[in-house]
Amino acid sequence: MPQMLDFPTCYVCRSVDLEIISNEEFGPMTMCCECGYSWIASYEELSSDIRVNIAS
Fold first, then answer.
1. Whether residue 15 has pLDDT greater than 70
2. Closest CA to 20 of 54, 47, 52, 55
3. The whole model's pTM is what?
4. Distance CA 20, CA 32 (A)
């Protein structure tokens, strides 16, 4: 039986090395430090222990 993960992972490479970045157009986004893929952050990602960086 599949196990549900307790923490967010990258949709592309399944890495758990993620960080929250701020984008002027889209607001908070989750970015994978492994492959660089990014997506609009969900509430679960914002409330978990992910590094937060403000990019200007």
1. yes
2. 52
3. 0.67
4. 9
pLDDT of residue 6: 64
For the stretch 1-40, what's the b/e string if a residue is b when 16 or more beta carbons lie within 10 angstroms of its beta carbon? eeeeeeebebeeeeeeebebbeeeeeeebbbbeeeeebee
| Dist CA 56 CA 22 (whole Å) | 8
User: What residue ranges do the domains of the chain occupy?
Assistant: 1-56
Chain segment 21-56, per-residue pLDDT in tens:
888 888 889 999 999 999 988 777 666 655 555 554
What's the CA gap between 14 and 16, in Å, rounded?
A: 7
Please answer whether residues 20 and 29 qualify as being in contact, where contact means their C-beta atoms are separated by less than 8 angstroms: yes
